[in-house]
Amino acid sequence: MKIRIFIETTQSNFCHQVANCLHSADAEEWETIFVLKHKNINTQAIPSCRISEIAYKDGDLNDTLISLANTLNHHDVETLEVHVEASTASLALVIFSTFFKRNIHIIKPHIYETSIRDYALRVASDSNTALRKKLSEAVIGNKGFTGNSAELMRCGYLWHHFLDAAYYIKKRDTAARDLPIKTIPALSDEQKRRFLAIFRIPETMFATVKEMFAQENVYYCSRIAPRHPMTAEVHRKALHELLLKIRNRRSESSLFLLSHQDNDAALLQPACDYFHQLPTCLSPSALQWLGIHPKNIISTLDDDLSVLDNPGERHLISTKEEDELPIPEEALTTTFNLPHENIHFTHEIERWHREGNAKRIFYSSASMGDIVYGLGAINALRKRFPEDKFVFVTHKLYRDLIDNSPSGVEHWDIHALTPEQYFEIEVANRFSLLHFFERWQQIVAACHMTDAFISEVTRDALDTDKGALLDFDAIDKAPVEKFMRDNHITSGKVALLHPNLGAPNRTWTKQHWQKLAERFVFAGWQVIFIGSDKNKYQSKKTMPLEIPGTFNAINAFSITQTIYLMSLCQLLVACDSGPVALAGYTDIAISALYSIIPSQYRLPYRHTVLGWNAQGINVGCQYGQCGHLIMNEKFFKQTLHKKWALPNGQQFAEWCPNGKKYACLSHFSDADWWAHIEEFINSDDFIMNTPSF
Question: What pLDDT was estimated at residue 110?
């Protein structure tokens, strides 16, 4: 069984595949499979009785090819030709080579280079031994491909090292010297008629268009789409200006413009003397195989390379910026003999930004405490950048904190970003308006986390309020008030204890928590256990404690309701964790235990004062409070005798250079903490919270 698979990704590339198919269409021993993205292809016009079609939608190609490879793997396949665009080649071929690992020699890649992007990939992959090793591990070994998507694309030109591959390349240079290159012959008149039928191009239309292109002053304008739907309006303005510029350079003669049908006729007509729109099926590649070679071209970076070999006047319009070109502009001019003045940029992102659309975006995948301190930084930065629109991209759990903030911050769900939001993030990044509140340097910085976040944005010292803000009127208080009434909890001496079971280097023992709670009850305090098992970390739980005289509010309230509960109570007792940051919204006193990070870097700002009405207890070992050492390469080498690498979240949670003993916490007893608490509540630093409830 011999099978040929033709994979359509772009119409430009697919035209070359169809032309190649027509040269062997009568081979009866082959079964042909077309994997099609568009529905306007008439495969019945190919003179073969063994043709099948598989349709796929944008984003589904990977799954479609896996399903196809799995099906074919259950048949006796003798030869498997895979015809595919260079930038998509490795995506497809890794899939087929995985399923046909034992008979990998039957796979015959046919790889087509038709765009500037493909050409740039070939140049980038030339003599890249590291890339070749990664592909080898995927094809021959059992690791799968370990590189990123960009590296996978560049591997498209390395398949001849492993399989009997053929490349169809128009621009032959030193980067193509070792590639096994094949050429597709021109189509005969009969094959051209079939080509017309396959792409549903009427012969009368073909004859008319051919006559039009015979004129000297005719320009062909390929499809020039906006960079993004959100830049459609600035795209119209930019393109209109560029086309008028091209038109004015031909002041001595008229301009006849034949345009791709998807272009805006109302935009193009004023820029020319005569105007006619062509159907989408007549792409530059289709015109080439039909023997039509426009003398003058207005094209984009995505068009077929053949337009750049055109001997007439060529203009290249890019919606990408100069620094985003697949190859440098200088190389573009020398490689394709294209004058600098004929390369035009629409600068759509810059125009869109200038019109006031860009937002200042803060991004954090971190946990609750970091988010609250990030909101404190944003509150301070709001006064520094009063005209900017602010967005905070976080886990959806923190939406209420952000939506209820009077700082005017928009929330985006980090796991449900829309294409429009991704685009806005791209724009923000380009204009230095994208700020990450999650860097390790910020987490272990020798300053308060809020100040570390502020320094991500500006070096200016901000002497303003650095606490997070919350609209208490927007909180649903009823569940909290009902809990207090039902349990007869009255204001006066109410302590909230947070016995969390989280990161090992910030978790106190259950035994100590139990004894500490008993000390509070004995001293006449009403004790409420708080916390949640419904956070974004499945490993972070709360300890189940049942002590007479205490009340359990674990998993009882939302984040904002927990803040309201804090506002009604007098003391929060917790290890280094999110509730300490939440307490910053209220006047409740805080006693918090800190192991790897010093308390002065984590206690909240309140009333413009760091650590107001708060007690931070710092414990450590011979390495002190060791959090910062996880980023110290010298410490790893000289003390731990290990190679340093950038940590991940789990490694930071388990970090303890003292053999993971966590002795700083285990040696700190309930009696020790109670002594600190008594000292604090009897000092002038303690301020009794007296809410009206």
Answer: 97
